[in-house]
Write a structure and sequence with these properties.
single chain; 173 residues; mainly beta; 2 helices
Amino acid sequence: MNRIPLVFSLAALALAACSPDTATSPRAPLAAKFARGASELPFRGKFELRSQAVRTPTTLQITGMGEGTATHLGRFELAMTELVVRATTQATGTLVFTAANGDQLFTTITGSQTGFVPPNVAQGTFVATIVGGTGRLAAATGTFTVQWSEVIDFATGTGVWTAAFDGDINLGK
């Protein structure tokens, strides 16, 4: 058995690890995060939601229910409340995720509509802040960004949303 390639491979790996360029490596932030023992974990997912809007002269009060999948939750159900200032399209609200086992994840959201494609497709971004939950998610914290698109039925005040999100979650363990 020839051990020379193995010895050279291990030596090259050791030299690369000691290289001053590792701090600028694209993986350096991730490596540093785990080296410090941090408990932030990637939090990604997608969902579809059906909404109903109530209009006032200055706001839209939107509520919705949906479902999706996410890391650390698996399949989930979702409830959304949102208050939109019509003049600016700025929104605040909440998302409540309920995992299949009943554990809930609570978030607050802020964001706005970033585009509109006639005749009826709105697009936007929310930043969600995780503020706790129930069960194994009781001490959860973190943030994630939601990119969404909504097909609006103006006659009925309803919409169908599709969304994807990406960020970090700390399960508080």
